[in-house]
Design brief:
By secondary structure, the chain is an all-alpha fold. The chain is built from 9 helices and no strands. Helix 3 runs antiparallel to helix 4, helix 4 runs antiparallel to helix 5 and helix 6 runs antiparallel to helix 7. The radius of gyration is 66 Å and the shape is rod-shaped.
Length: 279
């Protein structure tokens, strides 16, 4: 029974060891094929056949996704073609899979070059610093870092100037708005004043020279007319009033009475007067 168990464990160990050998063998074959495609791509790139070089590098990555040489060389090929976004993606892939400082240094250095092409100066500064961390003695990277810092400072100054211009522009717009509001307020005030002057003028037009309202004067005129209607009619020029006619009649009657008395007196003078007898 013990021997049987021993044989079983031995078979399992041999099977596992065989599988590991097969896996290592497959990985070695994939690496070999990937390297062959990288070499092929390099030859095409030297001859400026970037299309064929790109295809070869892609085949290398399909054989081994972690191929640093395949990702780095494909990114460099994209960079030479001017396809900066694709180049940046492949070089970042290379930095993740790189195992040596030299590989990381080259990848970060080219990333900095791409970012400078796209005027992303501050990001380029960070990339060059990462490159120098892996190879502090590279003078070319140090020189590019100085250029990137100068570019980043210039962009920062430009941004500050743009912000100041925007602030001045906003301030000018606010001042113009305030001036417009004041102007509108002044126009409204003038309109109200003009309306008040017009109302005052209309009121003055309705008053006479003594400051009395024409409407009051008109009403007073109506009252005077009513009083005139209640008063007795005044005699017209050349005509006698009823009172004068009455007085005249009375005077004529008095005159006629006096004449009549005078006539009667004359009659009495011609008649003899009979005296009374003495007893």
């Amino acid at each position: 029974m013990k021997k049987l168990l021993f044989y079983i464990f031995a078979l399992i160990s041999i099977s596992g060891f065989s599988q590991e050998k097969d896996q290592e063998k497959q990985e070695l074959m994939a690496l070999k094929k990937a390297n062959n495609f990288v070499y092929e791509g390099n030859e095409k790139a030297v001859n400026n056949d970037f299309v064929s070089a790109e295809m070869a590098y892609r085949k290398a990555l399909s054989q081994q996704a972690t191929s640093v040489a395949g990702a780095y060389n494909l990114g460099t090929s994209y960079y030479q073609e001017g396809s900066y976004n694709e180049a940046l993606y492949r070089l970042q892939q290379a930095t993740k899979n790189a195992t040596s400082k030299e590989e990381k240094h080259k990848a970060f250095h080219n990333i900095g070059n791409i970012l400078m092409k796209e005027n992303k100066c501050q990001e380029a500064v960070d990339a060059y610093k990462n490159a120098l961390r892996n190879n502090p003695s590279d003078n070319e990277t140090r020189y590019n870092l100085a250029l990137a810092k100068k570019c980043a400072e210039d962009q920062k100054d430009e941004q500050q100037d743009d912000n100041k211009d925007d602030q001045n522009k906003d301030q000018n717009q606010d001042e113009q708005k305030d001036d417009q509001d004041k102007q509108d307020e002044g126009e409204n005030k003038d309109d109200n004043q003009d309306q008040g002057d017009q109302d005052k003028k209309d009121g003055d037009d309705q008053k006479d020279d003594q400051g009395k309202s024409k409407e009051d004067k008109k009403d007073q005129g109506k009252g005077d007319d009513q009083k005139k209607d209640q008063q007795p009619p005044q005699p017209q020029p050349g005509q006698l009033s009823p009172q004068q006619v009455k007085n005249l009649l009375e005077a004529m009657n008095n005159q006629e009475q006096k004449v009549q008395e005078k006539i009667n007196a004359e009659k009495q003078k011609g008649v003899k007067v009979q005296t009374e007898k003495d007893w």
